[in-house]
């Protein structure tokens, strides 16, 4: 028995049918040579033999009596493997495989559906046959796991536990029959209530111990900020607000259940070389690619804001090199990065991004030690799952989210993935495109994961907020090609430092942005109707 942390439980409290709170990935799989039969059946057998390697597969939620505190994780009496591992592409009479575009739409539909809370919070959907544009026939694997159970880096750790480094699956020892297991029926009312109070007291005591160092760090940071503003005032410059609000954009809107999902893939070595050429990191390069693509997309389809778009960027609080697949909870905080989309000159845009990420790194070093990933459990479901959830729903459904200024315009996350090929049931993963969460007010999420020599972009958005989703995917590819020209190691412009001032050849306000993509028709609705399931959000533990 283990209580959820406050951060993990928050993903449960705020979840609605319009805002599912699970993360996932879509992998194209090169089937073994001469493979015959059903990939779905092969994957089911493979995963069933390894579910004991990570608790996320066999742990389920138990809710506190009267919602007094955070839910508990307990071991399920049994796991219904066919319920959790399903075939995504139904057999067709023609025998034709599903197209890649149709597979993306199917993933978008599946990603928009809630996970049933009466079971362990994960689902796998297997595609037996997908036809790629180059004529190859591959398999597909779509995963979805509730964010209450793991974060992005935890997902990479889980992949290492469940997958193999060679086409021949490694031998895995069976579960220990002597291991003591605690099931839902073993829980006692007094024990559950005691857990709420002991957990809450522990959190309050921890906060009290951290308060002096937190106050000292915050005072130091505030002092530096005030000193900088005083220097600016003495120099006659206008003082800036401590936090800049993001400009209005089409992505700052309430969301509905419909989703779009598109992907892009870029070579990792070339992206790293671009960063090295300008003295930046891979993260700086992928942010610049996203910034350039968003600038071109908004210029073509909407009005580009005069101020910079701001990205909410998760920052992992895990220790470097962590690989324990039994610790899959969220250890993450959030930062804000200005994308420099208002700057027409691409190198000035890169400079702005590098300066913004440098500020984030500096602040994270000073604040990481006491950033909260937990809070007292007592009555949290009533406060967060009640009042806060109602406020968030009202914010999204009333139209206020389209009118009020926001701290960010979209979410961008960059997750380091495995540098070598991974195999599932003997099939090689060709790609690792992530799918993440959108919420009211932030209707676009771009998650990037490096894998086996390339960088995979997974773009998830509300269907109305990103009507031309394919255009944004192509704009990412076009931005990479532009970056290669400007930031290759041999390019003269690549010697520009992050603080250098580059004079653009044209005025920023009148710069004409090249058309990165061609117009395509609006994304269609998911090809299959949404399945109706029983309401699982209100399921509770009865004592």
Features:
single chain; 543 residues; alpha+beta; eight-stranded mixed sheet; six-stranded mixed sheet; 17 strands; globular; disordered C terminus
Provide structural commentary:
By secondary structure, this protein is α+β, with helices and mostly antiparallel strands. Helix content is about 35%, strand content about 20%. The chain has eleven helices and 17 strands. The chain has helices at about 5-15, 40-50, 80-85, 100-110, 150-160, 190-235, 270-275, 280-300, 345-365, 380-395, 470-485, and strands at about 1-5, 20-30, 60, 70-75, 85, 100, 120-130, 135-145, 260-265, 310-315, 330-340, 410-415, 425, 425-430, 435, 445-450, 455-460. A hairpin with a 5-residue loop joins strand 7 (about 120-130) and strand 8 (about 135-145). Helix 7 (about 270-275) packs across helix 11 (about 470-485) and helix 8 packs across helix 11 (about 470-485).
What's a concise summary of this model?
With 543 residues, the chain is α+β, with helices and mostly antiparallel strands. 33% of the residues lie in helices and 18% in strands.
* Helix share, percent: 25-40%
Q: How large is the radius of gyration? A: 24 Å
Order of helices and strands: EHEHEEHEEHEEHHEHHEEHHEEEEEEH
Tell me the major beta sheet.
8 strands, mixed
Shape: globular
Strand tally: 17
Task: State the distance separating the first and last CA atoms.
Answer: 16 Å
Mean pLDDT: 79
Approximate strand percentage: 15-25%
The helix/strand class is alpha+beta
Low-confidence stretches: 220-239, 322-328, 493-543
Count of alpha/pi helices: 11
